[in-house]
Amino acid sequence: MPSSPAGQFVSIELARGLLQKGAAPAEWNLTVERFQLALERSVAHRFTSAASHLSGGASSNTLSNTPSHASPDARAIRAYLDSLHAADLALACACSDGNAAAWDFFMARFRSELYRAGRAIAGESAGRELADSLYAELYGLREVAGQRKSLFDYFLGRSKLTTWLHAILAQRHVDGIRRARRTEPLEEGEAGEHAYAAQQSSLANSAASSPDLERNRFLAILQTVLTAALDALEPRDRLRLAYYYVEGLTLAEIGRLVGEHEATVSRKLERTRREIRKHVEGALRQEKKLSAAQLQLCYEYAREEWPFDLTRALSQEE
After folding, report:
1. Can you tell me the mean pLDDT for 131-136?
2. Residues 268, 308: one domain?
3. Is the peptide bond between 307 and the residue preceding it cis, with omega within 30 degrees of 0?
4. Beta-bridge partner residues of 144
5. Span 263-279, mean pLDDT?
6. Domain ranges, residue 88
7. Can you tell me whether residue 61 is helix, strand or coil?
């Protein structure tokens, strides 16, 4: 994972301010220096990934190795840091360090949510087993070079911890299905070959190399589908949406501009929103082949990033 020396991009004062924003309890024993390292790792990962895309996929381990034109300035770094979920990142750091008080807090707050998400992904009994199996990875029973490796080390604070955990569960579920498929005999005949190919295609679409990559992939898919849905609207429906969401006009003001009663404007806006949602969900399920669990993840990621580029899409001239 990309990293950078402490203090290279995040000062100790900035780390202290963000740690205070996260309001980590004193009993977690989370130092500013430890939190600073986590912030540095998050910044390095975010901007190294961006630079890699700009440079045609070239990889690097630190921001100092990226092309000068792709290096972020202090304003970009500060904006990124302000967007992080500081409280969730502080909790992940403390849990990664094995702090008992932090683990008690995590279990009290997230256990029921993990079970709920597990049931939604894998069913009642399998879902609970799926959630339980995650705790060992989160705590870090595996050691590398004498150091405990926790799955929390891969949480960067870009999404809510709940959303990240959902993505981990979904990925582990797909991994389990893949392992099972390798040991199951194929159905006889051509139909069996087609069924197996379809299953593998579906699994490939649903898995991602990391929760962060999956988040970016789902957001890109949703942006594309939403833009297509907006483009398919009648000009007058787009106009109402633009007045409401881009210009920030009231229903009465929109009514005067388009020659409709405000109740009519309200009714037609609601109808347009329903049409957009139907179009988006249909495209995600049928064209993008997303499962119900993946669809839910899409919406969770979207709520954190909203409004995407909605204003630009609605502002385009007809």
Report:
1. 84
2. yes
3. yes
4. 147
5. 89
6. 12-96
7. coil
| Same domain assignment for residues 88 and 109 | no
Does an H or E element contain 37, and which?
Answer: helix 32-54
User: Rounded to an integer, what distance in angstroms lies between the CA atom of residue 244 and that of residue 270?
Assistant: 12
My answer on whether 87 and 21 are in the same domain is yes
What is the model's pTM? 0.57
How confident is residue 65, by pLDDT bands cut at 50, 70 and 90? very low
Confidence check: pLDDT of 164 > 50: yes
Neighbours of 149 (CB within 10 A): 15
- Indicate the DSSP class of residue 298: H
**In this model, does residue 253 exceed pLDDT 80?**
yes
Average pLDDT, stretch 43-51?
A: 70
Residue 207, CA distances (Å) to 75, 176, 177, 210, 294 in order: 34, 11, 11, 9, 10
**Chosen domain end from 176, 206, 236:** 206
End-to-end CA distance of the chain: 45
Same domain flag for 237 and 174: no
Q: What is the pLDDT confidence band of residue 104, given thresholds at 50, 70 and 90?
A: very high
Verify that 92 and 25 share a domain, yes or no. Answer: yes
SS3 for 12-34, per residue?
A: HHHHHHHHHHHCCCHHHCCCHHH
In a domain, 185, yes or no: yes
Residue at which a domain ends, from 173, 206, 239? 206
Computed over every residue of the chain, the mean pLDDT equals 76
Cβ atoms of 100 and 29 within 8 Å: the answer is no
* pLDDT digits 0-9 by tens, 228-247: 888 888 888 888 888 887 77
Contact of 30 with 93, CB cutoff 8 Å: yes
CB 236 within 8 A of CB 318: no
Confidence (pLDDT) at 59: 39
Domain count, the chain: 3
**DSSP string covering 155-188, please?**
--SSS-HHHHHHHHHHHHHHHHHHHHHHHSPPPS
Q: What is the mean pLDDT of residues 143-156?
A: 78
